[in-house]
Write a structure and sequence with these properties.
By secondary structure, the protein is mainly alpha-helical. It is about 75% helix and about 0% strand. It has helices at about 15-30, 40-45, 50-70, 75-80, 80-95, 105-140, 155-195, 200-230, and strands at about 1-5, 10. A hairpin with a 5-residue loop joins strand 1 and strand 2.
Length: about 230
């Protein structure tokens, strides 16, 4: 295996060797009729064709799993998950630097795939919880803070009392929204980033700052929509 310029994995199985394996299989059928004789190296290669095929397929599974993780990460998420990705790179490094096509890599393949699966679950959990947070922002943004019946004339005192009551009710509703947001963010940090390095802590703070901006925008939209409701 090797990494390309975009940090994705790719298989470096020799394409000429792959073609040779296919050709040897056909020539082997002809050899049974005594028409050709195989050189000894090709005979040895033919005995290893199944081993090479399985190893190549297993390596492609690792490539698919790893690249699936890289494609799953969006925007600044890659920087946020850098510690986790570095740990995954350490598992995969032997396949890039030390193992070759003669190696017995069954345990290596299993370890890599399990580690890829663990990281995939972490990223998927993060994105699911992040989506729940953004859903709360969307609800806040569309919330009307006033309660006005169209075409109704109000006495000022009664109108003010009614709107104050509505605001108190919305305040309790917003507390529910904020609690959902708090729980999701606390869980993300505790499970994924609590023990990460200082650089990741800085990335987490930047992530929270972006969320604060989104929350502020949602609150402004709620106020704007409420004013338009008058």
């Amino acid at each position: 295996m090797k990494k390309d310029k975009s940090e994705l994995l790719e298989s470096n199985f020799d394409t000429d060797l792959l073609k040779l394996l296919f050709e040897v299989q056909y020539w082997a059928k002809i050899q049974t009729f005594g028409l050709v004789t195989f050189p000894l190296p090709l005979t040895r290669l033919l005995t290893k064709k199944d081993q090479l095929r399985v190893l190549r397929e297993n390596v492609m599974l690792i490539v698919r799993d790893f690249n699936g993780i890289m494609h799953l990460l969006q925007g600044k998420e890659k920087a946020l998950f850098q510690d986790h990705l570095s740990g995954l790179d350490k598992f995969i490094a032997p396949g890039i630097t030390r193992l070759n096509w003669e190696s017995n890599a069954d345990s290596f393949v299993m370890q890599c795939r399990n580690n890829c699966l663990e990281n995939y679950k972490k990223i998927n959990d993060f994105q699911t919880r992040h989506t729940k947070v953004m859903d709360q922002f969307e609800i806040i943004s569309s919330t009307i803070l006033t309660k006005i019946k169209k075409g109704t004339l109000y006495e000022l005192s009664k109108f003010m009392t009614q709107q104050e009551a509505e605001l108190k009710e919305k305040q309790e509703t917003f507390k529910g929204f904020f609690e959902v947001i708090r729980v999701q963010l606390f869980t993300i940090y505790q499970e994924l980033f609590l023990t990460c390095k200082s650089k990741i802590q800085s990335e987490w703070l930047e992530f929270l700052k972006d969320l604060d901006k989104s929350l502020q925008k949602s609150l402004k939209n709620a106020v704007k929509n409420s004013l338009l409701d008058f």
